[in-house]
Amino acid sequence: MPRLFRSLARLGACALVLGLAAHGASAQTTTRHALVIGNAGYAQAPLDTPIDDARLVARVLAELGFEVDLRLDVSDADLPDIRAVIEGPLAAADVGLFYFAGHGLRYGGENMMVTVATDLTDGDDIRDKSIALSALLDRLTQSGGGLKIVVLDSCRNEVLPGADASLSTGFSLEEAPRGEVLVAFSTAAGDVALDSVGGRNSPYTAALANALQLGGADVYDVFRAIRRDVRSSTGGRQVPWLTGSIETEFVFRAAAAAPAAPDPAAAARPGSFVTPAGARITLDAILWSFLENSLDGRDLRMFASAFPESRHAARAAERLREIDLSGPDSDATARGLDMVTPEEAAAQQSRVLDMAGTYVLREAFRIWPERLPDVEKGLGRVFTACDALAADPVDPQKVSPGISAPTMDARQALRACGFDLARDPNNPRLLFQFARVLGVLGRHDWSNAIYDRAAALGYEAALVNRGYNARIGRGQERDLELAFDLTLRAAEMGNPRARTNIGAAFINGRGVDKDPGEGILWVRLAASMGWPHATNLLGDNYRLGRGVAVDLDEAFSLYRAAASQGQTTAMANLGLAYVRGEGTEPDEAEGIAWLNRAAQLGNRFAPLYLGDIYLDGAGSIAADPVLARALYRTAAERGAGRAYARLAEGHLAGRFGAGPDPAAAYRNALFAQAARQLGGSDVLDRAAAALSPETRAGIEADVARFLKLNGL
User: Fold this and answer.
1) pLDDT tens for residues 183-230?
2) Residue 348 pLDDT more than 60?
């Protein structure tokens, strides 16, 4: 029996090699090797999450069939051994993945991954004691074979005060000199990546771990999902980038085969569900599809205990014996991987943040104890690890503050919710939260099936999420009428989010005949319940005269009320109203302050509005076209497609402090077209007319390549 783990103690760094044996369906036809480095113990600027980040990535990669070489707090003394791994098994593998979490700086323009025993202010010391990205890429591709992926979750601090002038913050985008190589940067060129937004892991690594587990997703899908989730979880403050090019088709985790139809006895038990397509799936089969390659003996023991009658119970017991026979080092719980239980992970989350860029919970709402008090009839009697790891911040029936989907640790949440649900299979709150986890992991068909069960038990948030999936065609064919009917059921139960969505559906004629007057009634109901999104939407309708007469004074008051509750789009709308003097006396300074606040909290519209203001100036605000261009770029990176159209028009007209630039205009117009934000503008045609066919073709190829790598 092959050993699943081999311990390596080398040169002071904590090192561990994890080799995943081929088990049935998990057997790989290609060799997969990963070198994972987590550096946190810097004397001058220690970091909070890289050790946990590296361990999480190592666990996930090992379960995906990689032989993983894990190194923690690497010093310069370890570099010869690191280079040997890079030039040896990593370069030789059919798929080689290098991951680094820690400090990264540029020295003389060179991207450097810094070891822990380094003076972060001394350029020469950094040069001598770091891993240079260019050297890494050169060594990885010397043989010219295989697919190589470099993931850099670094650049977590500004250059320290007093540092050499040769040092600069952030990495520059860099590509390999040869071969099929992708280089994933956790943030944009020259920017700083966040170490944490309140959780155990950095936002980039949390998104990476979740995306790697998406079944059937190709490598580009994985990194586009990471970019989307990091942009959301950080409120637009961090936007990852991917460079390089590959032709090999590669998926980290194969699409799960359709589980065998459960036996009649299993199909009749509470943990049995039916997908929208009519397939039947059981809770044990769902969990086993994620746990079958687990290297954590606790996963397998808990599965065997929770599902003794499962058709997979025998295989779980067999896997446990294989781990036990491989020796004491084989079980991940016996090694340095810190395989925390869901309960331990929940206890470590003293507060959670919802930083989705539209609604920021007040600090007082986010404070939460590490352990709930033991009070008769208190929250502690119903609170579970699933609640800590997967509750929705906007679920009225939640029993914890909740965590937004992009910041969720889906690996732990899956285990917590799955095993909690096995103990209490008809608990609608746990069903809803388990469905939410499956959605994060890309199994929307299973997610919808479980939402349906929770909805049948009267759980209003399940109806809302299920309706949303039907509206956008996630896990089923798009069905606006079904979406409306499901959401209406939740609205009639009093759910404020559902009432807002029903109001918007009537106002826009989505899934129902258009009737703005009826829509306003539903939005008013939701706003009267204190739901800030409804209050902001009601303000929009008073400003635009949809379903009500135009009333700028009322719109202003509603925006101010929603902004005071943390609704960031309302903050942006309030700022714009102050600048324009709509519903209030003009106050440019107050307006800019509100817009800046919304932008700092990650709202995508605020930098767009600020760009419009600074492009031409407003009142006492002087025009600043260069600043306007930077603001439009920020808005575009946050997902505001209209900003690309503004950039295209500005570049074509020479509005940004320089002459006309039809090439930049054409590039941005193509992005605006991809975002469906050109409207009736002819800027794409006008820019194209100013360029040669060869230039247009080159720009089109560049834009297509960027969209393939990064998405919008």
Assistant:
1) 999 987 766 666 655 568 899 999 999 999 999 999 999 999 999 999
2) no
Our CA dihedral for 99, 105, 106, 108, rounded to 10 degrees, sits at -130
**Packing angle, helices 283-291 and 313-325, rounded to 10:** 20
Average the pLDDT over 595-600 and give the result. Answer: 94
Distance between CA atoms of residues 604 and 641, nearest Å = 10
Q: Is 577 helix (H, G, I), strand (E, B) or coil?
A: helix
- Asked if residue 117 lies in contact with residue 76, where contact means CB atoms within 8 angstroms, the answer is yes
For residues 327-346, b (16+ Cβ closer than 10 Å) or e, as one string?
eeebbbeebbbebbbbbebb
- pLDDT value at 364 more than 80: no
620-627: list long-range contacts, CB under 8 Å, 24+ apart: 620/588, 620/589, 621/579, 621/588, 621/592, 625/650, 625/655, 625/656, 625/657, 626/656, 626/657
Question: What does the alpha-carbon distance between residue 388 and residue 369 come to, in Å, rounded to a whole number?
Answer: 11
Edge-first strand listing for the sheet containing 67-72: 5-10, 13-18, 67-72, 32-38, 95-101, 147-153, 180-185, 241-245
The domain spans of the chain are 5-245, 264-345+384-473, 645-712
DSSP labels, 442-489? T-HHHHHHHHHHHHHTT-HHHHHHHHHHHHHTSSS---HHHHHHHHHH
Mapping DSSP onto H, E and C, the string for 405-442 reads HHHCCHHHHHHHHHHHHHHCCCCHHHHHHHHHHHHHCC
User: What CATH architecture does domain 5-245 belong to?
Assistant: 3-Layer(aba) Sandwich (3.40)
- What are the φ/ψ torsions at residue 530 (nearest 5 degrees)? 90, 15
For the residues of 368-390, what is the DSSP string, one character each? --SS----TTSGGGT--HHHHHH
Q: Which helix (H) or strand (E) segment is 169 a member of?
A: strand 167-169
Q: What is the pLDDT of residue 333?
A: 42
Closest CA to 34 of 12, 55, 10: 55
Query: What pLDDT is stored for residue 346 in this prediction?
Result: 55
Q: Answer yes or no: is pLDDT of 13 > 50.
A: no
Rounded Cα distance between 280 and 506, Å, is 35
Report residue 658's pLDDT band, with 50, 70 and 90 as the boundaries. Answer: confident
